[in-house]
Structure formats: C-alpha cells, structure tokens
Amino acid sequence: MKITFRIQRYNPEVDKEPYFKDYTLDGLEGTYRVLDVLHDIKWKLDGTLTFRRSCAHGMCGSDGMRINGKNTLACSLLLQDIKNIDSGKPVVIEPLPYLPIVKDLVIEMKDFYAKYELVKPYLIAKDAPPEHERLQSHEDAELLMESTKCIMCACCTTSCPSLWSNENYLGPAAFLKSYRFTFDTRDTNPEEHLTAVDSADGIWRCHTIFNCVEACPKDINITWHISQLKKRLVSDEL
Questions:
Q1: Calpha distance 97→138 (Å, rounded)
Q2: Which residue range(s) make up the domain with 15?
Q3: How far is CA 212 from CA 81, 156, 158, in A?
Q4: Same-domain pairing of 78 and 179
Q5: Contact assessment for residue 201 and residue 171, using Cβ atoms and an 8 Å cutoff
Q6: Which helix (H) or strand (E) holds 95?
Q7: Using CA atoms, how far apart are residues 32 and 2, in angstroms rounded to an integer?
Q8: What is the CATH classification number for the domain harbouring 69?
Q9: How far apart are the first and last CA of the chain?
Q10: Of 107, 132, 150, which residue is a domain's last?
C-alpha cells in the first residue's frame, strides 16, 4: 500500500504553533503497525520527528497518541485496522489532546502522574507484615483483575470532556487506580483512596460519557469501575 501520513509537528524552540507535515510511504503491508511507520519516517525520511515509545508491545503505554481522531497506542494499531485505509485520505497522527506538547507527538505528563499519586496508588496495610504474602481469595482477586490491566498511557483521561473543561479534574485513570486499591481486601484503609476522589474536582464530575471506555487500548470498562466507586462513597456516607 501507498499511504500518506499527516503528522502534527511542533518544536517550541522554533515554532509559534503546531502544524501538519505529510509523509508518503510506499510498499506498506496491512500488518505494519503505526509505530513501524513512525520508525520508518524517523530513520529514513526525517530524523527530527519526535515521539515516545519503549516496549513496543502494548504494555508500557509510552506511545499513546491520537490517530484519525481516536486515542490509542501506535504499537498496537495495525494499518489494516484503520478505517478506510484504502480511501487515499491521509492518516492523521497527533499527540494526545489537552496535555502540553513537549515536542511533536510527545506530551508533558507531570500533571497526569501528580493526579495519579493523589489517590495513593499502593496497598495501605496498618497491620504488621505477615511472614509470607497477604492472602486473598480467587473471587476477591478477580474483582480487581480488570482494573490492574491499566498501563497508564493517558488515553482515557485525555479523551474526557470533563478534563477539557476543568484542568483540575482528576480523570478516569486516577479513578481506576482508586478502585483497584479501594476494593482490595488486603487494604486496611480504603477510605484514604476514596477521600482523594470525593472532591469538587473528583469523581462526581464524571458524567458517564464513555469516552474513556472507547479510548482504552486494554478494553477496560472504566465507567463501570467509576460507578462502583460512586456506590461505595454513597454507601459509606449512609
């Protein structure tokens, strides 16, 4: 296939604002990933192109970006899975929305991780450590299983209109981590994870739009997990 990729470029040291630049590649196979294409462009056509990636296997979450208007991982999206790839229209690649651009497709994620840290994303256990591991039933572990698949790629949070209208909104990634530890039966202080999301900029600003579910590359039903946190908060208040 011969495909044109329209990539948003921006170097804050020389550019006043972002702009798009086209790159046309020939001989592409449908099984090529978008990340493979970005590598070809950087290594063979334009060494100045900047993007973030690490494991290249959909596990680290480094290469989250917006491709044809949808947040996803460049390493997990095959060309053959891009809608209307044979239409002749360019494939548009942009950085994830809302967060500041460092350069080209690289975004600044300090604020994203700061909000993640607010929910205390770790096990809180006030009792003395056991000689071996802290045991948990298979049923209790299964309740957490889907939430543990999150790779912190920020695809869900940057797709949320509540964040676009309120920069202090914690976002679905932080809520999902709060769920993961709030409902962990080994955690002795779930209220510490809950308190962080029960705020003016927290979970009650979620309007169940489902953008986060559509954007999640791990197919996590984030909205369902948020609903369970809301139920838990209401139950605890009663």
A1: 38
A2: 3-107
A3: 20, 4, 8
A4: no
A5: no
A6: none
A7: 12
A8: 3.10.20.30
A9: 61
A10: 107
Do the beta carbons of residue 197 and residue 203 sit within 8 Å?
A: yes
Query: Are 192 and 206 within one domain?
Result: yes
Give dist(CA 100, CA 204) in Å, integer.
25
Choose the final residue of a domain: 42, 73, 107. Answer: 107
The amino acid sitting at 63 is D
Extract the tokens encoding 11.
């170097």
Go through 127-141 and write b for each residue having 16 or more CB atoms within 10 A of its CB, e for each that does not: eeeeeeeeeeeeeee
Q: What is the CA radius of gyration of the chain?
A: 20
One pLDDT digit (tens) per residue for the chain, 238 residues: 899 999 999 999 999 999 999 999 999 999 999 999 999 999 999 999 999 999 999 999 999 999 999 999 999 999 999 988 888 899 999 999 999 999 999 999 999 999 999 999 999 988 888 888 888 999 999 999 999 999 999 999 999 999 999 999 999 999 999 999 999 999 999 999 999 999 999 999 999 999 999 999 999 999 999 999 999 999 865 3
The number of residues in the chain equals 238
What does pTM read for this prediction?
0.92
Give the start-end residues of each E strand in 105-208: 106-107
| CA 135 vs CA 4, 62, 87: distances in Å | 53, 32, 54
